[in-house]
Amino acid sequence: MPADPATADSRFPLAAAAAAARVATYNVHKCIGTDGRYDPERVAAVLREIDADIACLQEVAVRRRNAHHVDQCLFLAEATGCHAIPSVVSRPHRGRFGNAILTRFPVLTARSIDLTVAGWPARGAIDADLLVGDRVLRVIATHFGLGSGERRLQVNRLIDELADKEASDRPAAHAVLLMGDLNEWRGRGGGIGALDRRLGPGAAAPTFPSWLPMLPLDRIYVEHPAVLRDLRVYRSPAARVASDHLPLVGGLEWSDLTPLRGEPRYPDWRQTAAA
Hints:
6-stranded mixed sheet, alpha+beta, 20% helix
């Protein structure tokens, strides 16, 4: 029997219709700021300022042997009062870090996608289904590589994954939200043009480097009937030093606000998470 979204988890209040949500993508640079200081609380402060309902993070480090280095995904989730969906990528000689999704919405399903290309460092994505009001939003958080050919292959893999809409172990999504550090500054002429053709032009603005943003490395894609409003680069004093990227923030709305009829079809997210 599906979970009742009104009672799914009392820690995370949900709007009955969830007609709008604040979304953000943010490369936190392992919580090392532009001053060279390791400070997860500073990144948490930026996330609290943004107050996003869905935040996709890149370069989130996991716990190391040094007790002073915390599991950043869990730390940031607790500091912001959100659900956490981690996905760790191993990188030799540089510690272990990957992507994360922080959200206030119930998590229906979540899995990792391997985007590693032979000859290049490991890369990946998180593919999650969130219950936003009475609709299912498929959220993909990713961090592409530095090579244009590498990015092109990673885009093709994600497009293949996006075509998988009828998997028996996941709900049918009403829209797709894809966010991340795509490491592409050349627009549609670069390695990510196929994503623009599949989901519509990605929203981007200069986010790197944070002290003098010139390159639009971070992007947000939204599939109809969801739409993106009020895109902006978040430039608070804390954000300028907390990481070498600035957060990219927008408002997600539904272009068709007609309530869905009938009982929403989705699995019990609590049982899915426990599994």
